[in-house]
Specification:
- Keywords: ATP-binding, Nucleotide-binding.
- This protein is of the alpha/beta class.
- 36% of the residues lie in helices and 26% in strands.
- α2 packs across α3 and α3 crosses α4.
- The radius of gyration is 18 Å and the shape is globular.
C-alpha cells in the first residue's frame, strides 16, 4: 500500500526544551492511525512539524512523498487544527466556498461537496449564519466539514470530536471508516479512549516520546489490558 506519511527521527525543541524526541512512524493509504496522550504530550506539535508549520530540529517528515510546506499537494490533504481557523464575519457557507476554492475544487463541484460535508456534521440549517454566532461545538463541526472537502487522500484531524455530542460523534466516525474503505489515510488525535479503539493503529505519546505503537488489539494483549485507557495507564506507569 502507498505510504502517505513517513516520519523518521523527528525532533523538535522550544526554548531548549525537547518537545518531540526521535519520533518514528508511518501511515499507509486505507489506514486510520490514532494518537493519544495528555495535553502537552506533543500531539499538536507533531502535526504542525510534519506539515511544515514548525521547523524540525532533526529528522525528516514526508507527507505524500513531499517535504512540507508544499502548496502543490495541499488540495490532497484535509487538515483540521486543534484551534478553529475560520473567518467569523463570513457565514459558514462562505467559509466553505473559500476553502473549497483554496483546495482547487472545480466550480461545478463546490455546491455538492459543501452539501455532503455540511450534512455529515449536521450544519446544513446553519450555513447562512455568520460564524461569529456559532457555538464552540458548531465551529468545530464547520472546521471538520472544511477538512473533508475535496476528496483528500490524507486527513489529519487534531481533536476532531471535541464539543460534539455522542450521536454526531458516532456519525462522524462512520464517515471516517467509510473514507478508510475508499483508500483515504487518516491521522486522528483524540482524548476519547473509545475512539482510539476504532483505529487500525494507535500511538501513545507521552513527554514527546511514542511509548507504544500498534493495533489496539495487540496493545491490549501485550499489556494484559481490557481497554486502550488501561494500556495507556500501564505504559505510563512503567515510565514512572
Amino acid at each position: 500500500m502507498e505510504k502517505l506519511l513517513a516520519l523518521q527521527n523527528l525532533q523538535k525543541s522550544f526554548n531548549h526544551q525537547i518537545v518531540l524526541k526521535s519520533i518514528n512512524f508511518s501511515l499507509i493509504a486505507g489506514e486510520i492511525v490514532g494518537l493519544i496522550g495528555p495535553s502537552g504530550a506533543g500531539k499538536s506539535t507533531l502535526i504542525k512539524t510534519m506539515l511544515g508549520m514548525e521547523k524540525a530540529d532533526e529528522g525528516e517528515a514526508l507527507v505524500l512523498n513531499h517535504h512540507m510546506p508544499n502548496r502543490h499537494i495541499l488540495g490532497e490533504i484535509g487538515y483540521m487544527a486543534q484551534s478553529d481557523a475560520l473567518y467569523e464575519t463570513l457565514s459558514g457557507f462562505e467559509n466553505m466556498v473559500f476553502f473549497a476554492q483554496m483546495k482547487g475544487l472545480a466550480k461545478a463541484e463546490i455546491s455538492t461537496a459543501i452539501d455532503h460535508a455540511a450534512q455529515l456534521v449536521d450544519l446544513s440549517e446553519h450555513l447562512n449564519k455568520t460564524v461569529a454566532s456559532y457555538s464552540g461545538g458548531m465551529k468545530r463541526r464547520l472546521s471538520l466539514a472544511i477538512a473533508l472537502l475535496g476528496n483528500p487522500r490524507l486527513l489529519i484531524l487534531d481533536e476532531p470530536t471535541v464539543g460534539i455530542d455522542p450521536a454526531l460523534r458516532r456519525k462522524v466516525w462512520q464517515e471516517l471508516r467509510q473514507l478508510k474503505k475508499e483508500g483515504v489515510g487518516l491521522l486522528v488525535t483524540t482524548h476519547v479512549m473509545d475512539e482510539a479503539e476504532l483505529t487500525d493503529k494507535v500511538g501513545l505519546l507521552l513527554d514527546g516520546n511514542i511509548i507504544a505503537f500498534d493495533s489496539p488489539a495487540k496493545l491490549k494483549a501485550n499489556y494484559g489490558a481490557h481497554s486502550i485507557e488501561d494500556v495507556f495507564l500501564k505504559a505510563e506507569g512503567e515510565l514512572v
